[in-house]
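Elongation factor 1-beta (Arctia plantaginis), 223 aa
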Amino acid sequence: MAVGNVKTAQGLNDLNTYLAERSYVSGYTPTQADIQVFDQVGKAPASNLAHVLRWYNHIASYTPAERKSWAAGVSPLTAGGKPTAPAPAAKDDDDDDDVDLFGSGDEEEDAEAARIREERLKSYADKKSKKPALIAKSSIILEVKPWDDETDMKEMEKQVRSIEMEGLLWGASKLVPVGYGINKLQIMCVIEDDKVSVDLLTEQIQEFEDFVQSVDIAAFNKI
């Protein structure tokens, strides 16, 4: 499915339909195609475009450094979109390609050549060890159920979003009819796996006993 100009209402609606059954615009992991579409969208869309808003908040949760490491992807913005290339890395005066790990010269290298090679190997290993580690994240959709149809759902959502943890980012939300005039709150969040416990998060939500009857996990995806 091709998506039109996302700076127009029709283009955003097309993108919302496109993302209804997708976590990313290309494949099952974030790619440079997500960045291309993200930049074209420009700002968080209206709440009625729930799928675009979920995806937009998710991409926004990554740092620029993390985005640079993503692979190329196929953009849906034009029919038969072409792969997008990762952003070029800044030129480093001590680029790894410039390091001759094995030295050169005669097979019988002298002590000075051996010393230089060891220094280069050590420098290369130091640079590798300083590269940032990939942060494991998960995208979760929670369903928070009220006691009855008299529960103030806006206040319930306010209470849920009041929970703050390092590594927790709240995303889009919507009310989903359950029956008999009762709605449940469906809300998305992105967590850093090493910092946020899902069990602890759901327990904290359930502590709002005046509003919350129960909390279920509707979707849980590793990023």
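The chain is about 35% helix and 20% strand. The longest helix spans residues 111-129. ok done for today
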